[in-house]
Structures are given as C-alpha cells and as structure tokens.
Amino acid sequence: MATLCLSYRCSVTSWIRTPKRNREKGGVPHSLHLVGYAVDVVPDDWSMAPEIMRRARRLGLRAILEPDHIHLQLD
Fold first, then answer.
1. Could you say which of 3.40.50.2300, 3.30.457.10, 3.30.70.260, 3.30.1380.10 is the CATH number of the domain covering 2-74?
2. Which of 11, 21, 31, 48 is the most buried (most CB within 10 A)?
3. Digit-coded pLDDT (tens) for 4-33
4. Cα-flanking dihedrals φ and ψ of residue 64, to 5°?
C-alpha cells in the first residue's frame, strides 16, 4: 500500500480505526481497518485512479473506488 502511495502520489486518509471511529465512518462491523489491513487513499491526480487500482490488484490487494477515495485492503 505504501508503494502505491509513493508511486502515484496518494495521501492516506484513513488507516487503523477504533470500533467507534469505524462506526462513525460507516464502516462494516468486521472492517479490515480495525486491524490495520485496509487503508483509504486519495490520489493527487484522480485520472490515475484506474491505473492505481490495476496496480493494487497486481500486488494482491482489493481496490474499491469510492466517491471520494480508493479503498485498499488485503484480498
């Protein structure tokens, strides 16, 4: 995940969450954010989102495009 952020100039906007914060963010009860295996990132250049997602999948990550971020987690 760090490799993607550095390669594509992304900022991490959410990583490890407490159960309370996860609920406030609308996360699912068993979110991988709770154990640090998921991050939400925002690229400086949104036109790179499809490439970031392809690269994430090649690295064995699940990538989910959300309206205001890309969610990355272990697959």
1. 3.30.1380.10
2. 31
3. 999 999 999 999 999 999 999 999 999 999
4. -125, 120
